[in-house]
Amino acid sequence: MKTLLSVNLNKVALLRNQRNVGYPCPVAAGRTILQAGADGLTVHPRPDERHIRRADAFDIDKMLEADGHYDRGVEFNIEGNPFDQFMAICKDIKPQQVTLVPDDPNAATSDSGWDVFANEERLRPLISELKTAGCRVALFMDFDAAPSMQKIKEIGADRIELYTGPYAEEFGGPNQAAMTAQYAKTAIAASDAGLGINAGHDLTIENLPAFKQALPNLVEVSIGHAFTSDALWMGFDETVRAYLKSLDR
């Protein structure tokens, strides 16, 4: 299966926000990344707008429309905790995909997946609202969440996004094989439940090939921090090509 590459623009926005000069521009970065061959763009607006701002999400959407990227199948993925402001952004833009993440507003980064059994009553109507708006919905999930897959399907989600931080931590060590097997088990359970499989967090040029090999039904990866770090040395164009190569493309 061809695995799509969606590039997260948060770290470009974070650098922009350090100075009141307007650059580097997330919209311009997104345009360059797509021209280099990436399949989509991801943003994760948080309530404090520490990186991607509400206005950025709308500006990126306008660029994707004006440049004809939507007509060519490029996807916009907006991820975040479904607070009121986040839901309003998603329902206004109607991105192709919304990834719901249970991150604390004060957390440095997303670091765990949903407990769908404890949050079923909250998630079910939110998923319904987003799907009514025409969005595909993914839930951010941990590597050992295989027992949750049927419940995720039942409450209306279309995909999961596997939180790959633990895989990255174990990569190259004695527990890599065991950890990867856990991800594969959850991926199989997701496929059996009729869910698509995305993944993201701390995926790199080095650890991505083994992950892709272990999860042949991987539909999409979303990569931001490592991608932006690599781009400091290689530039956006070459970094896109390197990540596509890591995905055997």
The CATH architecture comes to: Alpha-Beta Barrel
Unreliable spans are none
Largest beta-sheet details: 8 strands, parallel, barrel
> Between the first and last Cα atoms, what is the distance in angstroms?
10 Å
Count of DSSP E strands?
Answer: 8
- Fourth-level CATH superfamily: Aldolase class I
- Helix content bin: 40-55%
Average of the residue pLDDT scores: 96
> How big is the Rg?
17 Å
| Count of DSSP-assigned helices | 10
Structural class per helix/strand content?
alpha/beta
Strand order of the largest sheet: 1-2-3-4-5-6-7-8
Pick out its properties.
single chain, 249 residues, alpha/beta, 8 strands
How would you describe this protein?
It is a single chain. The protein is α/β, with parallel strands linked by helices and 249 residues long. The chain has a single domain, classed as TIM Barrel (Alpha-Beta Barrel), CATH 3.20.20. Helix content is 45%, strand content 16%. The protein contains ten helices and eight strands. It has helices spanning 10-17, 26-35, 54-66, 84-93, 120-132, 149-154, 165-170, 176-192, 208-214, 225-246; strands spanning 4-8, 40-43, 75-80, 97-100, 136-141, 159-163, 196-200, 218-223. The chain has an eight-stranded parallel barrel, surrounded by five helices. β7 (196-200), α9 and β8 (218-223) form a beta-alpha-beta unit. α2 packs parallel to α3. The longest helix is centred in the C-terminal third of the chain and has 22 residues, at 225-246. The protein is globular, with a radius of gyration of 17 Å. The mean pLDDT is 96.
